[in-house]
Amino acid sequence: SLECRLSDERASVLHSWCVQSEWQAPTITGGRGARLFDSDGRSYLDMSSLAECSNLGHQHPRLVEAIREQASRLCFVTSAWGAQPRAELAEALLELSGFAGGRVFFTLGGADANENAVKFARQARGLPRGQVIARDRSYHGASYAGMALSGDTRTQGQVDAQSFQVSHVAPPYAYRCPFGSASDAECGERAAAAVAAAIDRHGADTVAAVLMEPNAGTNGIVAPDTYWPALRALTRERGVWLIADEVMSGFGRCGEWFAWQRHGESARPDLMTLAKGLTGAHVPLGAVVVSAAVSARLEHEMLYTGLTYCGHPLACATGLAALAAYRDEGLIERSRQLGAYLFACLKALQARHPVIGDVRGGHGLFAVLELVADRERRSALAPWPQTPPALRRLVGKALDAGVSLATRGNLIILAPPLVIEEKELDDALALLDRLLGELEAP
Ligand code: PLP
């Protein structure tokens, strides 16, 4: 029975990012658009695209059909052999991103995309153990190198970043600017200057790459507009590769195919990592896209990497269907428009609720609410990264009301599927309005 299956999972699966004995969740048996359905027949509006990955919603018919079709022809062949969907997806990604003359390495997800991007950057720079600079309050994956790259409080204690030749700099967290800047623009500039200082401290000839998210982050920081263009300029000046982690921010999440594109051609990174929205999470797939300059340096050298499932045909066929769905349904544009609407609604909520200290986002369907105990003083509801009990209760009540919300620390992260209907968005916001009122009530 379903009940038996539910208890089986509780007893038998090691679940991510939780205390095992505390894991508890409905068993999801289906989905459609922005909704998920559980084994009790209940429906949940998914306001986070699960792990900010189901950009196309759940069970997108075009992707389901592509999986079915590819499965009937060829499920798998290793990358020792060619495969048509792999070739087509690589070409489509290079064309879409404008990385003419570059190449694509396929992975299974985001962490291994970042690890391999670092390998390629080091090799292409002729520094096999070259330094990599990432930032605090970032997340790049939970493999060991992914954790070393992440400036995440949850993973920092588990791994010695220095032994991976990774160092971290302070983030462009404008609401609580680590550099004491009062303006967003200046905070972005100072945070970029800190990267330049870190490169210079190590010596530019020992630094292989800077790896960062261009705009939004799963740890709730949204970089000011000044940040990425400055990072691009200073890494170029110093001859250091710039790797954009677009695992979460790509495929419309930030209102463009890739978040860096908002800053124009001059902001193009040297390498870019992708996953999540690449297949809308219908099948696991990640990728590293490298520029023509990086590719040229790798052309006649041994590549010391490989994954059994590199460019899995089933996943690549799904990726091709995903690209077609984003394009044909105008979802990048839709994300930009609905994202602006969401941001305006959240600003209106902030005017009504003093518990909302900051609203971040506005570029695409990604927004962050930072909750505070006192708006004037910007005092945190709970010390980072703890989630305050009141916010936990709010999330529980939302789920009971059929809306699934993602939180991290004091943050509520809103990143619904790009196919969410306006009415669904309105319903979720009305519920949030009510629940924030209850949270504030004495
Ligand atoms: N990079 C970013 C920005 C992410 O948000 C994530 C996952 O949340 C990752 C990398 C890791 O991706 P994966 O979980 O597919 O390994």
Summarize the SSE layout with pairings.
Elements: H1 2-12, E1 28-32, E2 35-38, E3 43-46, H2 49-52, H3 61-73, H4 84-97, E4 103-107, H5 110-125, E5 131-135, H6 144-149, H7 153-156, E6 166-169, H8 184-202, E7 207-212, H9 227-238, E8 241-245, E9 271-274, E10 286-290, H10 292-298, H11 313-328, H12 331-352, E11 356-361, E12 367-374, E13 379-380, H13 389-400, E14 403-404, E15 406-408, E16 411-414, H14 422-440
Parallel strand pairs: 3-14, 5-6, 5-7, 7-8, 8-9
Antiparallel strand pairs: 1-2, 2-3, 4-10, 9-10, 11-12, 12-13, 12-16, 15-16
This protein binds pyridoxal-5'-phosphate.
The site of pyridoxal-5'-phosphate (PLP) has 14 residues, from helix 5.
Structural overview:
There is one protein chain. This protein is an alpha/beta fold and 442 residues long. The chain has two domains: 2-59 and 330-440, Aspartate Aminotransferase, domain 1 (Alpha-Beta Complex), CATH 3.90.1150.10; 63-328, Type I PLP-dependent aspartate aminotransferase-like (Major domain) (Aspartate Aminotransferase, domain 2). 40% of the residues lie in helices and 16% in strands. It contains 14 helices and 16 strands. The chain has helices at 2-12, 49-52, 61-73, 84-97, 110-125, 144-149, 153-156, 184-202, 227-238, 292-298, 313-328, 331-352, 389-400, 422-440, and strands at residues 28-32, 35-38, 43-46, 103-107, 131-135, 166-169, 207-212, 241-245, 271-274, 286-290, 356-361, 367-374, 379-380, 403-404, 406-408, 411-414. Strands 4-10-9-8-7-5-6 form a seven-stranded mixed sheet, sandwiched between helices. Strands 11, 12, 13, 15 and 16 form a five-stranded antiparallel sheet that branches. Strands 1-2-3-14 form a four-stranded mixed sheet. Strand 2 and strand 3 (43-46) form a beta hairpin. Helix 3 runs antiparallel to helix 11 (313-328), helix 5 (110-125) packs across helix 10 and helix 13 (389-400) crosses helix 14 (422-440). It is globular. The structure holds pyridoxal-5'-phosphate. Residues 51, 109-111, 114, 139-141, 213, 218, 245, 247-248, 275 line the site of pyridoxal-5'-phosphate. Pyridoxal-5'-phosphate (PLP) binds next to helix 5.
